[in-house]
Amino acid sequence: MGGIIAEIKQLMVSEFNQCKVSFCPRGCNRVAHALAEIGCKLPSSPYATWDDVPHDLEDLVISDSVGGDE
C-alpha cells in the first residue's frame, strides 16, 4: 500500500500546481462509496456507461446535498 501512496504523491507533485487531500469518513461521502462499490462489480473494461443514473445513487446525492444522514 505504501508504494501506491508514494506514487500518488509523486503524480500529484508532478501534475498539479496545487493539490489538497482531505480525509472524509465513509459516512460523509456515501455517494463516492456507492460508486466505488458499483465499479468493483463491473466487468473489466476501460469504459462504463449508464443510460440513467442508478436510482439508489440519485437518492444518495439528494440526501447528501440536503445534509441528511439517513
What's the structural blueprint in terms of helices and strands?
Layout: H1 2-15, H2 30-41, H3 55-65
Question: Mind explaining what this structure looks like?
Answer:
By secondary structure, the protein is mainly alpha-helical. It has one domain. It contains three helices and no strands. Helix 2 packs antiparallel against helix 3. The longest helix is centred in the N-terminal third of the chain and has 14 residues.
User: Could you tell me the strand content as a percent range?
Assistant: under 5%
Task: Tell me the span between the first and last alpha carbons.
Answer: 32 Å
Share of residues in helices: 40-55%
Q: Number of domains in the coordinates?
A: 1
Give the overall silhouette: extended
Task: Please state the oligomeric state of the protein chains shown.
Answer: single chain
Q: How would a crystallographer describe the biggest sheet?
A: none
Rg from alpha-carbon coordinates: 16 Å
- Derived from helix and strand composition plus strand pairing, the structural class reads mainly alpha
Tally of helical segments: 3
Mean pLDDT: 81
Number of beta-strand segments: 0
Q: pLDDT under 50 segments (min length 5)?
A: none
Topology order in helix (H) and strand (E) letters: HHH
